[in-house]
Amino acid sequence: MSNHLEAKMGDIADTVLMPGDPLRAKYIAENFLENPVCYNKVRNAFGYTGTYKGHRISVQGTGMGIPSISIYAHELINDYGAKKLFRVGTAGGMSPDVHVRDVVLAQGSTTDSAIIHNTFGGGIYYATLSDFGLLDAAYHAAKDMQIPVKVGNILAEDRFYNDEMDRQKLVDYGVIATEMESAALFLIAAKYHVKALSVLTISNHLVTGESTSPEERETSFNDMIKVALEAAIAD
Ligand SMILES: O=P(O)(O)O[C@H]1O[C@H](CO)[C@@H](O)[C@H]1O
Ligand SMILES: O=c1cc[nH]c(=O)[nH]1
User: Fold this and answer.
1) Where are any strands of DSSP class E within 19-129?
2) Which ligand has its closest atom nearest to the C-alpha of 209?
3) What is the similarity comment for this entry (predicted)?
4) Neighbouring-strand partners of residue 7
5) pLDDT (tens digit, 9 = 90+) per residue, 85-94?
6) CATH class for domain 15-234?
7) For the chain, what are the domain ranges?
8) Predicted model pTM
9) Is the separation of the CB atoms in 156 and 184 below 8 Å?
10) How remote is the CA of residue 35 from the centroid of ligand 2, in Å?
11) What is the pLDDT of residues 191-226, one digit of tens each?
């Protein structure tokens, strides 16, 4: 048991998929894992462990935003020994190069969160990066499955409703999409020397206004999950 998870030691696999939405954790467990067992219902942050092609994998809902994912990442690593963490989440397109339903691999995450300053103090603007091995595995897994992916710098912002953010400037500097967790996941993974990657699907576009129907969302979610699972067993 940890502060926020009721799983026993050994209930959670080394590799964990981490969707923000706990119901997406249930969906992944029921549709992609063999023999899934629910190990957590605390706060309805559902967590399951099962197997994928014979490999033990867990899926843990993390809630929305940096404070929430930080709690689950910390406890999965420190209380349960997780070694490979894959965020699987939705993101808003920012660059004209990405479109709804695209799968995005986050090479790194820019952030407006105070976690960087709170960790390093003034003057250090630490670049939070995904693990290159997982990124490489995901990129090649997607290629093998003929799922197109975009790779790049994303934004993990503290506010979903954020009129003050100069998104055009970030796009000019190569940021392609926005979500609310990856910088914290990468920072915590770096601190504890474990691997992390975010595999995202573009659910809406902040500039063009494109959005997805529920059926389209399901297909692109499935692509994102397949990429994460294949990368998980390849690396
Ligand atoms: O779809 P999930 O994984 O929740 O991710 C995105 O969706 C939420 C905002 O709607 C934030 O958590 C954001 O990062
Ligand atoms: O954080 C997010 C997630 C999806 N779409 C957005 O616009 N923002």
Assistant:
1) 34-40, 47-52, 55-60, 84-93, 103-111, 128-129
2) 2
3) Belongs to the PNP/UDP phosphorylase family.
4) none
5) 999 999 999 9
6) alpha beta
7) 15-234
8) 0.97
9) yes
10) 32
11) 999 999 999 999 999 999 988 887 777 667 899 999
